[in-house]
């Protein structure tokens, strides 16, 4: 079972939960070796290099349609602190397809910044716009930034989701110190940040997710797809073949 891990502070509670969850040593070894940023995990999931993970909502659309998504996600109801827009020329963040799309949906202009880098920017009290806050002001609904999706082992991952949603996680002091050293963000600030995020997807969260998907359709914003990548690869191969044939 190959689980891909987002290496951000927003999943610290899940990391603590999964460490103590009864899984095979192979599962945990893969988990800690295979960690990256959301957009990279999107591709790994779509190309089935991983079986499951917290996938960006925009890339989890097809899992949502096929009922291959659990009731666990990365959610904020208002300010999120780690998905922001900087007052710079418009620029997408290579690490997150969902946040880039959210910026378009909200008709905002600026430089998208996500994850621990965004949190550090806010911690340093630099100018920014919180996109979670803008979404909530406009729709009065939570925003689901990512969702625990799977390609197989349905019962296993649904059980993990159920137990995680029911669990109250306390982050050990030694881990907070590690997070502080790694992120350069004060541990008390990290705890305040994590209060903005929750993980259980209920009716309102699903409604917010569906509203986001409807906006993507309305604005014709493309979702990450395995097909698109294969088509691009095929076109490059075809162009190369045509050049050789014309020589």
From TrEMBL:
Pathway assigned in UniProt: Quinol/quinone metabolism; menaquinone biosynthesis
One MF term in the entry's GO annotations: hydro-lyase activity
Single GO biological process annotation from the record: menaquinone biosynthetic process
Entry-linked Pfam families: VitK2_biosynth
UniProt EC number: 4.2.1.151
InterPro entries per the UniProt record, alphabetical: Menaquinone_biosynth, MqnA
Catalytically driven reaction(s): chorismate = 3-[(1-carboxyvinyl)-oxy]benzoate + H2O
Taxonomy, superkingdom: Bacteria
Gene3D superfamilies per the UniProt record, alphabetical: Periplasmic binding protein-like II
EC category name: lyase
The keyword Lyase appears for this protein: yes
Keywords of the record: Lyase, Menaquinone biosynthesis
Keyword field contains Lyase: yes
Family label: Belongs to the MqnA/MqnD family. MqnA subfamily.
Biological role stated in the UniProt entry: Catalyzes the dehydration of chorismate into 3-[(1-carboxyvinyl)oxy]benzoate, a step in the biosynthesis of menaquinone (MK, vitamin K2).
Protein name: Chorismate dehydratase
Source organism of this protein record: Helicobacter anseris
Gene from which this protein is expressed: mqnA
């Amino acid at each position: 079972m190959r689980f891909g891990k987002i290496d951000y502070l927003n999943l610290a509670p899940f990391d603590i939960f999964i460490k103590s969850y009864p899984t095979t040593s192979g599962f945990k070894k893969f988990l800690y070796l295979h960690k990256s940023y959301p957009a990279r995990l999107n591709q790994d999931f779509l190309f089935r290099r991983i079986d499951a993970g917290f996938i960006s909502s925009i890339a989890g659309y097809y899992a949502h349609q096929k009922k291959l998504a659990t009731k666990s996600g990365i959610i904020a109801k208002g300010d999120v602190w780690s998905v922001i827009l900087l007052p710079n020329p418009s620029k997408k963040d290579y690490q997150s397809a969902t946040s880039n799309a959210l910026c378009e949906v909200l008709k905002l202009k600026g430089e998208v910044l996500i994850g621990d880098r965004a949190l550090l920017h806010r911690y340093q009290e630099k100018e920014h716009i919180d996109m979670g806050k803008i979404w909530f002001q406009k729709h009065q609904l939570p925003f689901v930034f990512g969702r625990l999706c799977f390609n197989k082992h349905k019962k296993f991952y649904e059980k993990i989701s159920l137990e995680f949603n029911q669990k109250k996680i306390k982050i050990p002091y030694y881990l907070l110190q590690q997070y502080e050293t790694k992120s350069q963000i004060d541990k008390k600030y990290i705890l305040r940040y994590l209060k903005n995020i929750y993980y259980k997807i209920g009716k309102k969260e699903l409604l917010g997710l569906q509203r986001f998907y409807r906006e993507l359709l309305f604005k014709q914003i493309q979702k990450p797809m395995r097909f698109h990548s294969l088509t691009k690869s095929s076109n490059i191969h075809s162009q190369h073949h045509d050049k050789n044939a014309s020589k």
